[in-house]
Amino acid sequence: MRSLSILLLLIVAACNYQNDQAGNTEENPPSPGFNLEGSDAEAMALADEVMTAMGGRTAWDTTRIIKWNFFGRRDLLWNKETGQVRIDSPRDSLCYLLNIQSMEGKVFKDMEEVTDSTMVKQLIERGKAIWINDSYWLCMPFKLKDSGVTLKYAREDTTQTGIQADVLQMTFNEVGVTPQNKYEVWVDKSDHLIKQWAYFRDASQDSASAIWPFDNYQRYGSILLSADRSDGRGPKAVKVYQEINDSLFTDPSPILWND
Questions:
Q1: pTM of the entire predicted model
Q2: Which of 36-40, 177-181, 189-193 has the lowest mean pLDDT?
Q3: What CATH number matches the domain at 65-131+237-249, 1.25.40, 3.30.1120, 1.10.1060, 1.10.260?
Q4: How far is residue 131's CA from residue 114's CA, in Å, rounded to a whole number?
């Protein structure tokens, strides 16, 4: 049965590739810079199944604004369309208001704007690094074919809770803050959602530095997201909006989220 499943996945991947060569648009095309040559057809086909299970590529592309809390440490608001990001970090009394595309923005400490240009540059870079990390914890299933990613089929396995899964391996080339990392993700054979992920601090490691559940999927707008997970870690208080007051990306005044 597994041989038949692999064959079907390879046929789907090959058809997608042929359609792309013919000038047609794939349902879930890889981002520019994705390592197409170094990635497995089977792994890419499974990534497409994950995207479909999460709501589909169109739903992800048209999801505009996402809000979440990370580990209880900070709140993030991200406009996917414009690149605007707001990060409220109560632990160090900082509010970052930046654009991750232009790398322009302002940072406020105790509601007072930081004006030293060197410090502002460092804090804007830090803010983007925070966003990269925190958004990956929330949106990783949508990023299997991102720029710089090499995607490989690793094996069949079961999660720590006994779910039968296909395991994909993700490695990175000159992207993100820690490109030396490696991830493995367990794709549930029944519903094609990622149910577990493993973090390798260095891609050369044989054993994972940590393994976490990726569960408790809920629908937010048109997409599924995993939050409030069974281990109590990761993203919480997730909301998705199509419209929001733009002043939230320019005014550092505290936000009282009550929805």
A1: 0.87
A2: 177-181
A3: 3.30.1120
A4: 19
